[in-house]
Amino acid sequence: MTKAEGLRSAELAAALDRAIAGKRADLYRQLELQSGLPGPRVNMNLGLAFAHECARLGARSDELAYAMASLPPDEARGASGKEFVSVCGVLAVGARATSAEEGAVRERALALLEEKADDPRFRVRDAVPLALAALGSAMKGELAERVEPWMDRYFHATAVIRALAEPAWLETFATDDPGPPLRLLQAAYDLAHDAPRSAFRYPGHKALVEALGSAPKAVARRFSAPMFERYAAWAEKVKIPELRDAILANVDDTQMKKAFGEEMKRIKALVQQSKGPPRDPTILRHGTRGRGKKRERR
Fold this sequence. Notes:
single chain
């Protein structure tokens, strides 16, 4: 989560105070009006400012933040202004837990974020990596251990590696300690690669593959050599076309081409080799039916 200032609007700040006291309707209405929804872009700057203000208020804002984050989809429908209220709640929970010293506050926040990682509304899901990254800035390697159990579920693994790509968390790992980030990336890759073919149509799997097309690149800029070794290991045995594309997307990095140009060429060659020889369409494989014209009998 990027650094944000508190609420600049005196009217919105007053509505927040009233909401904390139990009168939430005005705050919700103002957030809905300024949400940018329905529309192509949600007002994330406002969401982060709201989260910052809740963190400043401390425990006073907890009940409100959790109520907002927990608004059900049938009440705060996707692409509506009310969805933004839930987005603000998720961000506020993360920001508050980041500034809190009490372990119980962070555990409660992590439980909420775990629940929201596979929320049916994608904007609510998108708020989870930002909140996790904010927590990571405070918890550092401890968060990597805490989220390891998340790595067996598609949307949850997606949230973790997207959070890992955020500088707020990634830069807390010492440059000589790539182990925790690489373990999380490997778990995400294994989950995507070893999934049953039926899972490839599932939005969670698609989201994970998409995240694997960009998150490793961010990790490679901090842990270059070990990440390129991991790319090579993936490229050598990758069987999934979508993951081949993801690997290639990561090594197509102009910032690192000068230092790792030869490694990039090697990885691209390994990806190409992993495809194997082209299939001869005239060969009928055992257990399949020919779909072309019947061959003449001789």
